[in-house]
Amino acid sequence: MIEFCGIALAHPIVNGSGTFDAIAARRAFGDALLDEFPFSAFVSKTITLLPRAGNPPPRLWEAQAGLINSIGLPNRGLQGYLEHDLPQLADLPVPLITNVMGSTASEVGQLVEAIDARDEVAAIELNVSCPNVQTGLDIGADPGSLAALLRAVRPLTSKPLIVKLTPNTADVAAVALAAEAAGADAVSLINTLRASALRPDGEGRPWLGGGTGGLSGPAIRCVALAQIGSVARRVAVPIIGMGGVTLGAHALDLLCAGATLVAVGTESFRDPAAGTRIARELKSLQIAGSRRATPAESEPQVQVDVKSADSH
Ligand SMILES: Cc1cc2nc3c(=O)[nH]c(=O)nc-3n(C[C@H](O)[C@H](O)[C@H](O)COP(=O)(O)O)c2cc1C
Asked: Which end of the chain is more exposed for a tag (fewer CB within 10 A), N or C?
């Protein structure tokens, strides 16, 4: 058992928002899904105040070591979520985290208040990869805009508030610090990296119906490791780390970088049971690691010359 913002979880592996449709999986796998649910908590896809149809197709581009998506956050909107999705998600055998997004403080406030009123939800994740209507920049790219948003919505919920940071910013640690100072209970990162792909006809037109998209999967794992490390050095609140995790060893890396939980995203499209496998692999690595750390073996080993190691 581990503890995250006062919530007891069976292991550190959760899903990345929008990458595992638990309602569709229950239809496909039946109650077997509940018997061995792949994650220790379930994070919903992003919910907006009003329903969204999402972006026109094509919505996906397979990159060499990842996936560019331009799904555009299709969802039923707050009322549809509360009436249709929430009763089904409440049946899952793990705590539920609802992910919300809005383009103004008033929109986010309405979402947070409505979710706060529901006992089925253990925590709220705020997706701040949304353009500020005044500046056009992502709210989560600017410490000042994010702090102002959180000051407005933090008082509206007593549930743990997790801020899902955008990696598309010059200094993610500065944004994380602003989130922490304005009352975030935890931060999660990384969301997808802004990316684009062109049609193969050589005419320079975008492939994706939405124009640009977000890159996820193994291609972003090194970026995730660096950003999680830099945030962990600056904030005290717990971190949900994600980005390109496909093995228990990758999850262990993110934990070593400072994450408390690790989310699996794109890998679940390839293998819907990836969460279970990664949690199992992580556990064996942790057991093997603690067995190795006997007093004699944990003596300092060879000193690495950091300067020369960095110069490659
Ligand atoms: C198809 C797809 C849909 C996603 N939808 C959301 C979403 O609704 N809300 C959100 O906060 N993140 C969303 N994400 C981002 C993931 O939760 C995660 O942060 C990102 O993909 C990095 O993890 P990964 O490399 O393991 O996929 C989405 C990612 C993908 C690939």
From this structure: C
DSSP string for 202-249 = SS--BSSTTSSEEEESGGGHHHHHHHHHHHHHH--S-EEEESS--SHH
Instruction: Give pairs for 286-293: CB < 8 Å, separation 24+.
Output: 286/252, 289/252
Percent of the chain with pLDDT over 70: 92
The answer to whether the beta carbons of residues 78 and 227 sit under 8 Å apart is no
Å from CA of 174 to ligand 1 middle:
22
Ligand 1 mutation pick, 191, 228, 268, max ligand atoms within 8 A of CB? 191
pLDDT band (50, 70, 90) for residue 165:
very high
Predicted TM-score of the model (pTM)? 0.94
Report phi then psi at 280, rounded to 5: -70, -45
Q: Hunting for tokens 């942790």 — which residue is that? A: 286
- pLDDT one-digit tens code per residue, 12-41: 999 999 999 999 999 999 999 999 999 999
The closest of 98, 88, 83, 84 to 41, measured between CA atoms, is 98
Reading the block at residue 78, the tokens are 């707050």
Chain centre distance of CA 56: 24
